[in-house]
Specification:
2 domains, Serine Threonine Protein Phosphatase 5, Tetratricopeptide repeat, 3 strands
Amino acid sequence: MEADERERRLRDSPLRIRDGNLEKYLREVLCREVGQDRCTGVRLYAMEIPSFNATMMPNGAMEVWSGLLLRVRNEAELAAVLGHEFAHFELRHGLSGFKNRRGTSDAMAWISVLGGISNTPVGNTNLSLLGSIYRFNRDQETQADLLGLKYLAGAGYPAKSAAQVWQALMAEEDASALGRKQKPQQKYSAGFFDSHPASLMRATYLTKQADALPIGGDARAMEFADAISPYLPRFLAAQVKLNDFGGSQYILNGLSERSGWTGDLLFARAELLRARGNPRDLQLASQFYRQAKEAGNTSPELDRNLGLALMRNGQAEEGRTALTTYLTAHPDATDAKVISALLAN
């Protein structure tokens, strides 16, 4: 009942990506991964949420977040995540996890009552029971990792792709830490309250298991890029708004290694630098806005943001020219009066 209600909210959510064929493509990848016979009853929802996540509920509904689609580098890595989530469903982890949490919380409640009656301390006992919930979840994640890896290899994708997902996530976490002037640090083991194994641990055992499986064939990078390209500008815009300079720059650099610095990537790079707003950042942002325009980017806000970056950097005349170009092209823009007032000063 809880899963059905959650699916209803997903189905009707304004965050659901309904346009285009994205959900159709995701279903095709899942069916290629686990087989047509297994995926028939799955309902799949693509959600515009800029974090790395996908989940599958006990009733057969799966949700995939846009942040995941921005981060995986090919169809094989996407299939590895979808196969992992389907493995949870096939192993009935959602139901068994619910029963485990319910039984453990009931036991903790009764122990607290009995402890109060007998005036006996129960803190350590309840803490141990609470830890068992997280340990149970970590064991389920490992089981789903290993079954998902078998799906991946059985579908003919490169078996190493599952480990590469976690290796890339660790590299992004390091880049985020450096961007915040923190020391990168990867955990070798899960903590007491962690519900998932540590990323380094997962990458290690998935690599070891992959070595014992067939190498696999095409990762289908081009097919993945073609399916995602219509949505890339808005996924990138959402990532820039997360205020994670190091992590966002890592993602942009990774995308550029595969496709070169396209107009969309140059525009996102300019937006990232303008958001940080250091003097040198503003100069570089102006440069990348111009390059994005030359590369064919037609974002309506390009000239506006170029003008704002130039004016913040003290290049008033060039900034006014860009803002005037924006107003000429978009006289009915919602911010036209604000930009006009800025030009009047």
